[in-house]
Amino acid sequence: METSATISGGPDLRRLTGVIGGAIALAGVLLIAIIAYTGWISNASEVAAEHARVENALNRSIAAALDQQKSIAWWDDAVVNIAHKFDVDWVDAQFGYFFTESYGHDEIYILNAEDQPVYSFLNGARAGPEAFFAHEPILRGVIEGLRKGTSGGLRERPDEFAASQDNYNVLKGVLKSARWKGNILLVDGVPSIVAAITIVPNVDQSLQTGTPYILISVINLDDKLVADLGRSLLLPDLKLSTSASRLEGVVSKPFAVDDGQFAGYMTWTTSKPGQSLLTIILPLVIIGVIGTGILSATMLRRLGRASAELARREAAATYEAKHDPLSGLPNRHFFALRTEKALRQGGGRSGPASVIVGYLDVDRFKDINDTLGHHTGDELIKRVAKRLKDYLAPSDFLARFGGDEFAVLRSISDDEAAKPLEKSIEAAFKRPFSVDGQDIRVTASLGLAQSPEHGMTTDILMQNADIALYEAKKRGRDQSVSFSDEMAGQLQQRRQVELELRESLHAGELELHYQPIVSCATNRIVGVEALLRWFHPSKGSIPPAIFIPIAEEAGLMPELGEWVLRTAIDNAARWPELDIAINLSPAQFHHVDLEGLLKSLLETSAVDPSRITLEITEGLLLDRSNKTHATLQAIRNLGFQVALDDFGTGFSSLRYLIDFRFDKLKIDRSFVSGMSRVGPAKTIVQTVIDLGRALGMNVIAEGVENEAEALMMRALGCHSMQGYFFSKPVPKAAIEGLLTAFNGTREGEPTAWRDDRGAQKKAV
Ligand code: C2E
Ligand code: CA
Ligand code: CA
């Protein structure tokens, strides 16, 4: 019922595990992504930087070509030898051969003020000026741009050359009139630097008349030049290729010349600084992350299993802690919790409400256990549990407190007219219980306590239900009793007595008194019965009828009984001519090695056991167990006499008299006292005496209170008599006096003795 729901923490833990797992996975993925991105971005930015460096190097190459041209073109002599008078040999030496051989220019052209060629130098030799026209369409933009100071329809490059000219103070004058332009263009399909510069005087500006001439150089960007460029940029394999490379780590960037024509791919091996990150660290991190993932998954799974197991065990432990293993019913602890809750909730849905606590005890369950065995007892308990559940209302809370004790909790709200609890329970026990093929009929006692009249707290309600149950058992079982304050008072008193009784033995408040037993035949005292007396310092004398049952229940009887036996046997030595009767309590049979105790008492006292009569009551014989029988037999074998006390008050089954041979039979005083007035009692006494005599037993009449009764008992054939007529129980010191008084009288007549007169008085 309350079990499966208690395995909580499962979903919580699963959620937590999910969150932790998710967090670990996210962290792993993030780490991998960051490393991969860092590697990739640093590679990409390095490629971009390398590309920019290549571009920059090309621009500087253009500036270098212009610088080379400038060294000759900006010169007074050049203006004189070209513009003023065209000295072809001088031009060959200073321009054609010089630029070709010193700087590797591939083509050199000089145009006049009208942009008409006046000089061409190709492939290491002078050509006719008209050779210029072969490349004129390609070079047109550069020339136009130079003349007009425009882009000439070509891509504009950063003017590295201009930037470097500021350093030359001497050239300040030239710079005012000089013009230049550098571009990269496809010349005969070969990407080439095209550098154009005006031929102007460097010192004597007056030499400049009209529009200046132009020097044009074409320098092919051949493999060697590109490779040189690459080396200077620490890109040793830089080259211009026709197709893009697919090789790992090789970059190919499309390369367009300045008029926009595609000229191939600028290709180089990039240094890839992020590569180690991507090829070494990233795989390691991935392995690490996967490993961590697997590890934490395993750990989380184990954790999950462990905590599931823990939750299961906890639930089992909680269940065990709250349930009785035999019947599966809630136990006392759980019952108390429930009662607590019911009281807090006011017992019901609304309005003034009530909680009923019922304590139930299966009557004489111990007998069933003893006679039919524990297995049957256990089975019976299970059947009773089931039957109760069937007969109680679904909202009733049934618990088992162990043994044969059950408890029921019922909450009643005002509007609920339920069948009384005692009726349901009564009905449950109407039919017998079928256990192992046999029908067992049992009854139950029920104690009820109800809030708020009988208590407002769990403790008090449970305690009062227990008191009511005790009362139900005391009143003869098989009934239900509701708690009353009076019961609590009695119980309180009992508790007090119990407490003080424990002390009394050691405090010397207990004493044995002796009541004479007189022979009918001789009228002499032939024996005494030892009777326990408790002289309470403040409450005075407490009768044994009160304190002996309490001692029995409180488990004090073994100790108390041993003291009685020891004291009585000890005192027996004082009156060698008397028999001593000692009362035995059932508890002395159940909880003490009685045989062993009696044996040891005989050894220490050296009294003749045949002088000692041990009195037992029928109550003891109800328990037909072998042990009781065996103990009784052992006592007789030791030489003691055994008497059946209070005969006629209990079941008085003749069975007892057949099962066990008693030496003496004591007729209860309820048949003797006042017998002369009640006719049928006389018949019963007569019958019992006849029976006893027939079975060879000594018959003793108890409670002889007057002379008439004494005479009657003697007439009916009793062997001996005991009662106030002869003497009340007296302290041991008074026995000697009684003996002298009694046993000195004439034989054959019942005699009373009054100690107030200090003399014997003839009764008849
Ligand atoms: P019991 O064994 O039947 O003892 C006889 C009781 O009858 C005694 O009561 C005694 O005082 C009383 N009695 C004797 N003659 C008369 C009489 O003429 N009229 C009336 N009305 N009563 C008379 P007591 O001493 O109060 O003991 C009551 C019971 O307590 C005993 O009944 C016995 O069952 C128990 N008891 C007393 N002492 C011991 C003991 O040492 N051990 C055990 N186990 N039980 C004891
Ligand atoms: Ca007795
Ligand atoms: Ca008696």
Give the SSE map.
Elements: H1 10-73, H2 76-84, H3 88-103, E1 107-111, E2 117-122, E3 125-127, H4 136-148, H5 160-165, H6 172-177, E4 180-187, E5 190-199, E6 213-220, H7 223-232, E7 239-241, E8 250-256, E9 262-269, H8 275-322, H9 332-344, E10 353-362, H10 365-372, H11 374-391, E11 397-402, E12 405-413, H12 421-428, E13 433-435, E14 438-440, E15 444-450, H13 458-474, E16 480-482, H14 485-507, E17 510-519, E18 525-536, E19 540-542, H15 544-554, H16 557-572, E20 579-583, H17 586-590, H18 594-605, E21 612-616, H19 618-622, H20 626-637, E22 641-647, H21 654-659, E23 664-667, H22 669-672, H23 679-694, E24 698-701, H24 707-716, E25 720-721, E26 730-731, H25 732-743, E27 751-754, E28 759-762
Parallel strand pairs: 15-16, 18-20, 20-21, 21-22, 22-23, 23-24, 24-25
Antiparallel strand pairs: 1-2, 1-6, 2-3, 4-5, 5-6, 7-9, 8-9, 10-12, 10-15, 11-12, 13-14, 17-18, 17-25, 17-26, 18-19, 27-28
The structure holds ligand C2E and calcium ion (2 copies).
Category from helices, strands and their pairing: alpha+beta
Number of helices: 25
Number of extended strands: 28
Measured on Cα atoms, how large is the radius of gyration?
66 Å
Helix content: 40-55%
Note the main sheet. 8 strands, mixed, barrel
Rounded to the nearest angstrom, the distance between the terminal CA atoms is: 80 Å
Mean pLDDT: 88
